[in-house]
């Protein structure tokens, strides 16, 4: 009998320590397609994209689960599980994610999986915790849909690295600039014609191509100008052919990049989009955010895994400027609600399911 009483006491203590701090012991459930749920989910996606320094922006695809916990003395905390899909917009592209194209299944799509906790208080949203990872669609599924479609190649593949080097050299020669490689973002090996397709990010330096003797002596500009390139290196019996197109993201008003006249090289200067009259949901996100320099992901990979997106990001359950603290998310364990209500989850699929 004493053992049973001790066991019950330990269970109660464990439950108390496992419950999120400052939250009530009961939660309410919303439909995953409820407008309030979707608003908070969009806050979470905007937060994800705001923290991305590598890879591609992601779009909301499906809300899998939602719970809403009361927070004392006021406010509510939304716990969400959401699925996202990679778009074709690079992480540093100023294009709003709403205007970005979701990468299709035939292009070897990538799906993200995120656990997010968002505080809603006085109409303001603060992301308290975020954890994501992502993975490409399986090769088997891509082959079923499109037998001849090329699959993602490892970004450190020797042919991929060579294709990027050749494309960057061609771009610098035609634009009379000296851009440095930031990262290789995506690559595919195409069997017919034998070629390598690559996408990569670049940043401008203060050197011109004709002045460069040692690229290591070139410095990044004070106001960094990033660019994003797509290129194809085609292998031919008599050599190689490189076609490259780059878009330079301007951080200052309209300073157009030189327009080269070469047949295979184009430069497109993209100015930042004007601020909309009605700010997006992301503009409602309150609270400070601290972002450390992103850690380099593993080299033996074929995509940028979202698990690296929040390296060095800290947040705290506060909108009052309190100190940040690194912490693991508390496990939400508490008594069941007295009257649980079954709600439809997961929600609708906005694009397609991987």
Radius of gyration: 24 Å
Characterize the main sheet: 5 strands, mixed
Question: How many structural domains does the protein architecture include?
Answer: 2
Give the class-level CATH name of the largest domain: Alpha Beta
The proportion of residues in beta strands is 25-35%
- Helix % is 10-25%
Low-confidence stretches: 13-19, 252-295, 312-339
Strand order of the largest sheet: 5-6-7-8-9
Mean pLDDT: 78
The number of distinct helices, counting runs of at least 4 residues, comes to: 4
Q: Briefly note the CATH topology name of the largest domain.
A: Nuclear Transport Factor 2, Chain: A
User: Termini distance?
Assistant: 52 Å
CATH A-level architecture of the largest domain: Roll
The coarse overall form would be: globular
* H-E string: HHEEEEHHEEEEE
Alpha-beta content class: alpha+beta
Secondary structure tally: strands: 9
Summarize this structure as a short list of keywords or feature phrases.
alpha+beta, Nuclear Transport Factor 2, Chain: A, 2 domains, four-stranded antiparallel sheet, single chain, 354 residues, 30% strand, signal, disulfide bond
